[in-house]
Amino acid sequence: MIEATGLTKRYGEKVAVHDLSFTIRPCIVTGFLGSNGSGKPTTMRMIVGLDAPSRVATVNGRGYAQLEAPLQEVGAAGGPRGAYEPSARNHLRAMAATTGISRGRVEEVIDLAASADASQTSRQPRPARRILPAPG
Q1: CB 16 within 8 A of CB 9
Q2: Any idea what the Cα angle at residue 23 is, between residues 65 and 96, rounded to 5°?
Q3: Where in the chain is CATH 3.40.50.300?
């Protein structure tokens, strides 16, 4: 479980995230939605310890830096930072290969996401989703 209570992050005078609280249950693929500048990447960076928030978000009751095998407990994928962005399948395979998650689990998660997409009846295009396999 990922828990955050009252996270705030400032860059000088600019407040990127203000008093954010949430709980993410285990084994649930979760994404942050919001307009440009609403703090989505900053929030992910705070969870995984790349940015220092006012308070520490916890993963399974501990800060990310205290986890013995953090990539076995939480996965995060940010937006593109350059011209090259691998497919979701290749990204998941690379993450799995470096964290001890089986290739079969990658295919299982992709199939699960495809099934969820197929069950949608909306005719409106949906933005691409980034997913990471939970250990299993």
Answers
A1: yes
A2: 50
A3: 1-76
Rounded to 5°, the CA angle 53-43-97 comes to 110
Residue 14's H or E segment, with its range, is strand 14-24
Q: What is the DSSP letter of 135?
A: P
Do residues 27 and 60 lie in contact, with contact meaning Cβ atoms separated by under 8 Å? no
Residue 128, token pair as written in the block: 């691409």
Encode pLDDT of 42-86 as tens digits: 888 888 888 887 888 888 899 888 888 887 777 766 555 544 456
1-76 CATH pick, 3.40.50.2300, 3.40.50.300, 3.40.50.720, 3.40.50.1980: 3.40.50.300
Class of residue 75 by CB neighbours under 10 A (exposed 0-12, middle 13-18, buried 19+): buried
Query: What are residue 72's DSSP bridge partners?
Result: none
